[in-house]
Design a protein that fits this description.
The protein has 151 residues and is of the alpha/beta class. Helix 1 packs parallel to helix 3 and helix 5 packs antiparallel against helix 6. It is built from 7 helices and 5 strands. Strand 1 and strand 2 form a beta hairpin.
């Protein structure tokens, strides 16, 4: 279950075979937003995921984002938005179920690409963002960050 926009692909945690397909389609970098608890629960699947990234030559960046987005630190949000500002690398942005990926993709679109909050919300909903707290988090962070002045 993957959505694509430009050089950013987003979705839920893929199986190793899915990573192979992503690499063949030009993915160079993976940003994993799962929490350490989620990675631990996944156990062997996480080990296989990391091994597949290494084997395929994919840069793997693990940025811990709690399932409860309201517990996410502003510095973590800033880090992910900054990583997504790099349009040169085809990137797979993922989390356990895709909803946090959708939220962070929307923040990227607002901050780095000057997309309106309303349009970014529509895209995020289509990509799996949950109503309620996820939307509230997106709105709070978009107000805090605003569009980049250097874009």
């Amino acid at each position: 279950n993957v959505s694509v926009s430009g050089n950013i692909w987003m979705g839920s945690a893929p199986a190793p075979d899915d990573l192979d397909l992503a690499a063949r389609r030009g993915i160079e970098r993976v940003i994993d937003l799962r929490s350490s608890a989620e990675r631990e629960v996944a156990g062997r699947a996480t080990e296989e995921f990391v091994a597949a990234c290494q084997e395929l030559g994919l840069e793997l960046l693990e940025v811990e984002v709690p399932e409860d987005l309201s517990a996410t630190r502003n510095s973590t949000v800033d880090e992910v938005v900054s990583l997504l500002a790099d349009h040169e690398s085809r990137t797979l942005l993922l989390c356990r179920d895709g909803r946090r990926s959708a939220v962070f993709f929307a923040l990227h679109r607002i901050v780095n690409e000057d997309v309106s909050v309303e349009d970014a919300l529509i895209e995020a909903r289509r990509c799996g963002m949950a109503p309620g707290e996820d939307e509230a988090f997106l709105l709070r962070q978009s107000q805090r960050l605003g569009p980049r002045s250097d874009s």
